[in-house]
Amino acid sequence: MLTFTSMALLLSASALLVHGTSPPLVSCQVKGKTYRHGESWKPDPCTFCVCEDGKELCAVTMCAIGDCPHSFTPEGQCCPMCPLAGAMGRRPWKR
């Protein structure tokens, strides 16, 4: 036997299906900042995050391990690079 509450919930769910609408998507609260569903941000150069219906989903960049002496990581970048050779910016390898 359906109670009044059960029937109301069933009708609400049916109305959502019939009209093609869905419940509002939930935003994310991260370190005091609010991100809308689908909004992305980079908390640091190596991490990419997105808000998915109230959940913070993040991926961390995996850097390839280079084989060059004196590698460096440019400001704002994630992965280290090999330095350029010479004043004209020629690469230290031959083409």
UniProtKB/TrEMBL annotation:
Residues 1-20 form the signal peptide. InterPro entries: CRIM1 (IPR052624), VWF_dom (IPR001007). Keywords: Signal. It holds the Pfam family VWC2L_2nd. Gene3D superfamilies: Complement Module, domain 1. The keyword Signal applies. Residues 26-83 form the VWFC domain. PANTHER family: CYSTEINE-RICH MOTOR NEURON 1 PROTEIN. This is VWFC domain-containing protein. It comes from Coilia grayii.
